[in-house]
Specification:
By secondary structure, the protein is of the alpha+beta class. Helix content is 32%, strand content 21%. α6 (176-187) runs antiparallel to α8 and α7 (206-215) runs antiparallel to α9. Bound molecules: flavin mononucleotide (FMN).
Length: 323
């Protein structure tokens, strides 16, 4: 069970906050981000010792405040919990004084494309004429402005920002039309010279899936409802470069294609785990190929939906070279 850890300032708005839970794994934190209004509502309920709920702006999550326990829920599923007393003390203590923002970081509710670029769908001229911050300016200033904007569930930036790996899949079968879309997504990926230096193995065989578990350092979740193995095929890359370069291209081709499939899976409300820890020889024997596998993508409906993991600060990731 995840343990409620702390409340800290938001990366974006000095009036919002981040509620952080520590996961089972060491590197695993679950963070729920509240905007100003959500935090105010939470504080109001807690201050008055009421029970109630705070609906979050993504329209799928809410915080339920009960007398004994506070729960963060995603689409009617229990996700994270904290004893009400501890949670109340920490939140009310935090709310006593104003806070400054932390630095910019991507997260489900912070990293919206519309925050950085011209909002072409905006009907309001005053709004769209406002100077917009570029992503770079936002990173450097640490204080980007978010523009209110309807985000569709399939908005690409929402897909990026809400994806979370899953290592426990529900038994539910993945629909064929979804499988087709995931495979087609791999096919739309860019490849070096458009030579498509990769092959995708769609592993339906139960026996082969079980064998892949063994070939992937006995990671049990490799036996997932949908298993795709991305292999490099440098012989397809008909370019006049040294073989090491062609090998590198085919590794990149296979990796980018797997990434496209992973994002497509998430857009289809599935979840996935990328497996890089594989014994290449064993995987080759299972697939009956001499092509080198680069990754296994295991996909299915998650047993439990979780919020995305946090990352290092964006400004620490981006290294800007200027004249
Ligand atoms: C190149 C690569 C190799 C990975 N190999 C494994 C693996 O063998 N086993 C595993 O459980 N997760 C593996 N992962 C998944 C990462 O642990 C996971 O993406 C990371 O913890 C970030 O979590 P997130 O995907 O939920 O954001 C791998 C991911 C990548 C990109």
């Amino acid at each position: 069970m995840n343990k409620f850890s702390k409340i800290e300032p938001s990366y974006f708005s000095k009036d919002g906050c981040r509620l952080v839970w520590i996961g089972i794994d060491e590197d695993d934190t679950d963070t729920v981000i509240l905007n100003k209004e959500e935090l105010e509502r939470l504080v109001e309920i807690l201050k008055n010792n009421h029970v109630g709920n705070v609906e979050l702006e993504d329209n799928v999550s809410e915080i339920l405040i009960n007398s004994d326990v506070v729960q963060f829920r995603l689409k009617d599923r229990d996700q994270l919990e904290a004893p009400s007393n501890d949670f109340r003390d920490k939140v009310l203590e935090y709310a006593k004084i104003p806070h400054d923002t932390l630095s910019v970081q991507t997260s489900s509710k912070e990293f919206y494309a519309s925050g950085w670029s011209t909002d072409q769908t905006s009907k309001s001229p005053e709004k769209s004429n406002k100077p917009k911050m570029s992503l770079l300016q936002a990173i450097l200033s640490g204080n980007p402005k978010k523009i209110d904007h309807e985000i569709s569930p399939s908005d690409l930036f929402r897909i990026f920002a809400t994806r979370r790996s899953t290592r426990k899949f529900a038994k539910t079968k993945v629909e064929d039309w979804k499988i087709e879309k995931i495979l087609a997504a791999a096919d739309t990926a860019p490849t070096a010279g458009n030579f498509q230096g990769l092959e995708v193995f769609y592993v339906k065989s139960k026996k082969a899936k079980e064998a892949l578990v063994e070939a992937a350092n006995r990671q049990p979740f490799v036996n997932a409802p949908l298993v795709l193995v991305f292999c490099m095929n440098p012989s397809r890359v008909k370019m006049n470069f040294p073989s090491e370069m062609l090998a590198k291209f085919s590794l990149q081709d296979a990796t980018v294609a797997a990434t496209y499939s992973q994002l497509a899976a998430h857009a289809l409300e599935l979840s996935s785990i990328w497996i890089g820890m594989i014994d290449e020889k064993k995987v080759q024997a299972i697939l009956g190929t001499e092509l080198r596998p680069s990754s296994i993508l295991c996909i299915g409906y998650p047993d439990m939906r979780k919020p995305p993991k946090s990352r290092r600060k964006l400004k620490d990731l981006i290294h800007v070279l200027e004249d």
